[in-house]
Write a structure and sequence with these properties.
alpha/beta; 6-stranded mixed beta sheet; 4-stranded antiparallel beta sheet; 10 strands; binds adenosine-5'-triphosphate; binds nickel (II) ion; ion transport; AAA+_ATPase; translocase; ATP-binding; EC 7.2.2.11
Length: 370
């Protein structure tokens, strides 16, 4: 299937001042993956491994001290018959690769050819990202919803404004549309009159989710969308996200919650110290043969429903990464080759000694060989 998003060699470097010298923080390094319409890729990994920075890079939301390199092609989408008619047709785009259920009758009278052409998200620039990409072609459920909500406006009025802007819903039907949008994210209707600071973390999360779903963007980036939610709301959010994907949209699900990832994801990418170290089908990852990278295996074993064994040691500092495998100092299977040579992602795993099928949980008392 044609990719909706093709990320190639995406790297992000932050320049920071430390001890009166400038240092480079390698937050994301050489990340490559594809995402198709109707597919969910879960991006998992310990805190600080670069997941949110990756999402920010795709939306042009990096701070000023960051530099992103590589490419992130967002595929063009074909117009529907009605959009073709209304815009006079002939947008010069292929019509046979539209995702099933993809929203193509683009809102807001913005149905120009540029809206649907292929874009490199890393090079298009802020104006295109702000007017044509964010919310319309790429939706974001941010990790810190409070920072993305307007503090002085009620959730209801923020939803109404976003709905009007992105879908062109007439004023008379806005009230009904706000209720529908809130319900999709399990945001209670009787809280729509509240301001962001009056909401709990979980409610702010649901408000941000409702806002992100409004544009029905073909690609959704959901950064920890279930943080702060009770288990039944986690399940509801996971089900809503899956519905979104089954409607033909693509989802990059960034999460610590491997259980939620198991319910929603088609494929899993495991990040460690800024790199993808394993990229595989969710059924193989969560079932058989299981993760093949020792770090991925440890991550899964750390789940309370599995071996419940924490991963020993700490991830490396991103401004002083080793030249070989960054996981080697914590890896019980590491050899001198792991310290000397960086293993590249080959056949879905970046490891010199990938685990064999259905291997037993790794033991903490295995002596580190490095
Ligand atoms: N503005 C910045 N300047 C310097 N370093 C930064 C900046 N923003 C993020 N980083 C670094 O980039 C790394 C990756 O951060 P990121 O937020 O992507 O992690 P994450 O995987 O999303 O973690 P979490 O699961 O905790 O959300 C971190 O080590 C962080 O310190
Ligand atoms: Ni994050």
């Amino acid at each position: 299937m044609t990719s909706l998003l093709s990320v190639r060699d995406l790297s992000v470097r932050f320049t920071v001042r430390r001890d009166r010298s400038r240092r480079q923080v390698a937050a994301v390094t050489d990340v490559t993956f594809d995402l198709s319409p109707g597919e969910c890729l879960a991006l998992v990994g310990e805190s600080g491994c670069g997941k949110s920075v990756l999402a920010s890079a795709l939306l042009g939301l990096l701070p000023g001290n960051a530099t992103a390199t590589g490419t992130a092609l967002l595929g063009g989408t074909a117009p529907t018959r009605s959009a073709q008619n209304s815009s006079g047709g002939g947008l010069g785009l292929p019509t046979d690769d539209a995702a099933p259920g993809e929203r193509l009758d683009l809102p807001g009278g913005d149905a120009g050819a540029g809206l649907r052409e292929e874009l490199d998200l890393l090079s298009v620039g802020e104006r295109v990202l702000a007017t044509r990409v964010r919310g319309r072609r790429v939706g974001l459920i941010p990790q810190s919803p409070a920072g993305h909500l307007t503090p002085v406006r009620t959730i209801g009025s923020q939803l109404a404004e976003t709905i009007r802007e992105l879908t062109g819903t007439p004023r008379a039907r806005l009230g009904e549309a706000v209720l529908t949008a809130a319900k999709r994210a399990a945001f209670p209707a009787d809280h729509l009159g509240l301001h962001p600071h009056e909401l709990s973390g979980g409610l702010a999360q649901r408000a941000a989710t409702a806002l992100a779903l409004v544009g029905d963007a073909p690609l959704l980036l959901a950064d920890e969308p279930t943080t702060g939610l009770d288990r039944d709301l986690v399940d509801r959010t996971a089900a809503e996200l899956r519905r979104h994907v089954d409607g033909g949209r693509a989802l990059l699900l960034i999460t610590h919650d491997l259980a939620a990832a198991e319910h929603v994801a088609d494929r899993v990418a495991v990040m460690y110290a800024g790199r993808i170290v394993e990229l595989t089908e969710a059924t193989s990852f969560f079932g058989s043969p299981g993760p093949r990278h020792p770090y991925a295996r440890r991550l899964l074993d750390a789940l309370p429903t599995r071996a419940f064994t924490p991963i020993p040691g700490m991830p490396p500092a991103l401004d002083a990464l080793p030249s070989g495998c960054a996981f080697a100092p914590r890896c019980t299977a590491a050899t001198s080759a792991c310290v000397a040579d960086l293993p590249l992602l080959t056949d879905g795993v970046a490891c010199h000694h990938p685990l064999q099928a259905d291997s037993a949980p790794l033991e903490d008392n295995d002596a580190l060989q490095v």
